[in-house]
Design brief:
Blueprint (H helix, E strand, L loop, with lengths): L6 E5 L7 H9 L3 E5 L2 H4 L5 E4 L5 H8 L3 H9 L4 E4 L1 H4 L4 E2 L12 E5 L7 E6 L6 H5 L4 E6 L1 E5 L7 E7 L2 E9 L2 E4 L7 H19 L3
Parallel strand pairs: 1-2, 1-3, 3-4, 4-12, 5-6
Antiparallel strand pairs: 6-9, 7-8, 10-11, 11-12
Length: 211
């Protein structure tokens, strides 16, 4: 008997092209749907994707009507992957603009402390502890960001990899329970990045029966 296809909901903040992300998810065997309603995005799905395109304030505004529903679903174990801006929405708030994040990881989003901003291009991952990153051999990743997450002392416990840009060290990835965030774009990070996306989908499938 074949394993059912993993169902993935992508929450669309209305900020940009999701084509490359959706293509990488489908290549990993996922059945993908796109939701603009944050509460609907966490219903009848095996995993949630918070994509990495846009700015914090408008994304938080789109999230606000269903913020409690999404937060509750994540706290109850729904696997989720937040990419770039999506990872930033896992934190409390952002200096980029007003609005409330999901508060899964305690901390605030702040501008990179560097002369060259935005950071665009490849950067190495350091102190990697997430097994999904290790399995996919993802040690260098593609970034396109001006803001980074600054966890509180409590929030640092959830950091699973770090990167550095012009001396500014920041979380490359976080994980709390079944919720994973990456400041980099795995879908643009060559073969290891695609392998990481597939590893996440396999993980989400493994959690289906547990939930």
């Amino acid at each position: 008997m074949s394993t059912p296809t993993v169902r993935v909901a992508v929450f669309d903040y209305g900020a940009g092209n999701l084509h490359s992300l959706i293509k990488s998810l489908e290549a990993g065997g996922a059945e993908v749907r796109v939701d603009t309603d944050p509460a609907a995005a966490v219903r009848d799905t095996d995993a949630l994707i918070l994509p990495g395109v846009g700015a914090f304030a408008p994304a938080a505004a789109r999230l606000a009507p269903g913020l409690s529903a999404m937060r509750d679903a994540l706290q109850q174990g729904l696997p989720a992957l937040g990419i770039c801006l999506g990872m930033q929405l896992l934190f409390d708030a952002s200096d980029e603009g007003p609005g409330e994040g999901l508060g899964i990881v305690p901390g605030r989003v702040q501008r990179l402390e560097a002369a060259r901003v935005p950071q665009i291009g490849w950067n190495s991952l350091q102190d990697v502890s997430d097994p999904l990153l290790g399995e996919s051999a993802l040690d260098t990743a593609y970034y396109a960001n001006s803001y980074v997450c600054r966890p509180t002392a409590e929030g640092e416990a959830f950091v699973t990899a770090w990167s550095e840009h012009e001396g500014d060290r920041f979380p490359a990835s976080v994980r709390r329970g079944n919720v994973i965030g990456t400041q980099f774009h795995p879908e643009k990070s060559s073969t290891p990045g695609v392998a990481f996306v597939r590893a996440f989908l396999t993980f989400a499938t493994s959690q289906r029966s547990a939930r």
